[in-house]
Amino acid sequence: MNIDIKGRVRNTKLLHTHSLLPLFEAIINAIHAIEEGAASGVIHVFINRENAQGVLQPENAVDEPIVGFVVKDNGSGFTERNYRAFCTSDSTNKAALGGKGIGRLLWLKAFEQAEIESRYAEDGVWWFRKFQFALTDSGVERHSRVRCETESPETTVSLIGFRTEYRDRCPRSAQTIARRIVEHCLEYFVLDKCPELRLHDVYDLEVIDLKHLFQTEILRHASEFEKFSVKDKEFRVTHVRVAPGPEVSHRLHFCAHKREVTAENVATAIPNLSPSVCDHDGKPFVYAGYVSADYLDEAVNPERTSFNIDDREPGFMDDISWQDVSEASVSRAANFLSPFTGPIKKAKEDHIEQYVRAHLNIAQF
User: Fold this and answer.
1) Distance CA 101, CA 91 (A)
2) pLDDT tens-digit series, residues 154-203
3) What angle do CA 342, 344, 350 make, to 5 degrees?
């Protein structure tokens, strides 16, 4: 590998709270591979737990620590071009898709190693490539490429040896992980650009169809798009009403290249916003807003964990501060939610009025 892999990984930032980000990177790579090479793409994600014999006691699955993940897809595979890009620091091979060329470094930040197997066609010949990606001098170990007779594409990325500091902060529930994947890749789901994507829990054999999950349990109503401006920059927010669930709260998700980068809880920033509000049919929902812009695409840091935007008071000259972005986004969310928070506000006002009247009557008596 044409980089100092140990140094690059050491200098790559990944908060322990972002323990699922390496998995998200592997899934995004699979989506890109399918966009590049598969007419009908399918991605399978497997959760590997510490106790592989859990099928005997499936009710305890959520208690078993996660030790790794496996991502399989039928996309373009590790062709010579893609393999060279993998072995090149800060590759621009997928720059048009938002690739920073360092996503694979996050694998080694949170996992001891990754094992890659890829079957693909190139120049009319089918090949099978296999190698390990680890914290060694070269990074790529035990590489081999041979011809194969099977004529169907398949690439497998196995993330092995979940490091304790990240494993301990990783959610264990397959349902929670499924929701996090959808949230991270929401724009692909909203725009119906996501291939078939299934999450398998090896422990209890549970299989979650993420597109079905999005349509039936997460998306409570058709999403709505809105454009707004911050200084002279154009932004877009996608308003989504999602079903209430564990660890689900009203949030604004700030995205770059169709992926969530950071999120803010807006429950306290928007008046009269209860933990879940009801739509006009009386069904409860939680708000999720997804903010995107060319400006955010350009400002995202290499690890895709934050934006290189000054965090200072708004209105300083013509530059945009993070507070400018946050306040404008919260304002659009509040406006979208006003038909649903309005009744809550009125109920509060009516309650106060009744309270005052009752106490006035007592005082007059």
Assistant:
1) 5
2) 999 999 999 999 999 999 999 999 989 998 888 788 778 899 999 999 88
3) 100
| The two structure tokens encoding residue 231 | 């200084």
d(CA 82, CA 122): 11
From CA 224, how far away is CA 237, in angstroms rounded?
Answer: 8
First to last CA, the chain: 87
**Cβ–Cβ contacts within 10 Å for residue 24, how many?**
20
C-alpha to C-alpha distances, 66 to 46, 177, 299, nearest whole angstrom:
11, 11, 33
Distance CA 46, CA 160 (A): 12
Sign of CA dihedral 80, 86, 87, 91: positive
| Alpha helical stretches, state H, the chain | 5-10, 21-37, 80-86, 103-110, 164-167, 174-184, 186-190, 210-213, 294-299, 322-364
CA 83 – CA 68 distance, rounded (Å): 23
Token pair 């406006």 in the structure block, residue: 335
Residue 365's DSSP bridge partners are none
Residue found under tokens 């011809």: 147
pTM of the model: 0.73
Calpha distance 225→334 (Å, rounded): 14
Residue-wise DSSP of 66-109: EEEEEEEE-SS-S-HHHHHHHTSTT--TTGGGT--S-HHHHHHH
Q: What residue type is 314 in one-letter code?
A: P
The CB density around residue 274, as the number of other CB atoms within 10 Å, is 12
Nearest-angstrom CA–CA distance, 99 and 157:
17
Query: What does the block give as tokens for 9?
Result: 């990984």
Pick the closest to residue 157 from 178, 131, 194 (CA basis): 131
Dihedral sign for Cα atoms in the order 201, 205, 206, 210: positive
pLDDT tens digits for 33-77?
Answer: 999 876 689 999 999 998 755 555 555 556 789 999 999 999 999
- SS3 assignment, position 221: strand
